[in-house]
Amino acid sequence: MAAKKKQEIEFRYYEIPQNEPCIALLGEAWIRPYGEDIDSLHFHNYMEIGFCYDGVGEVVLDEQTVVYKPGMFTLIPKNFPHNTNSDHLSLSRWEYLFIDVEAFLREVYGEDSFYAEDIGAIINNRAWAVDASRYPETAALIKNIMDEMRYKKEFYAESVKGLQLSLLMNIARMNQGNSEKIRKQSRGVSNVI
Question: Which pTM value belongs to this model?
Fold first, then answer.
């Protein structure tokens, strides 16, 4: 029996510009075939949040594959291997946000806050590729942040920070089922009964 080929995983580094609340990849540049000439997974140093407006294909979340279609969003924690592949390299339209969850929560709750650590662990607990109709409030927050970053009206950064906090708390709620286990692990507490 032949040995299974080890899959390559690429690290993609982003840096949030000074005085910006997040990175927003928006507009026509993100209408493209996804997965073209890419045979590997990748991961980022920040949480990636994507919204699909058009197109179909697959989102690979580590070892899980989910079919995507318009009206879906993805929530991918930092350092989580993933990839997006359009069907037959057809055009898809996505837009993305990249959020430094830990730095943002430290800014909100204080540098030494155990609460910030706990909630960050819950938020980064799992990846999602889900139809927006299942979590309409979360989807609306994603799109509102994207619009604030797109138009950059007066006080947009402050607005994004408020929306971002609401979004992260919605993600924590989505991940709530594993929250007690995560809290114990983040504090080094064993789960032994």
Answer: 0.88
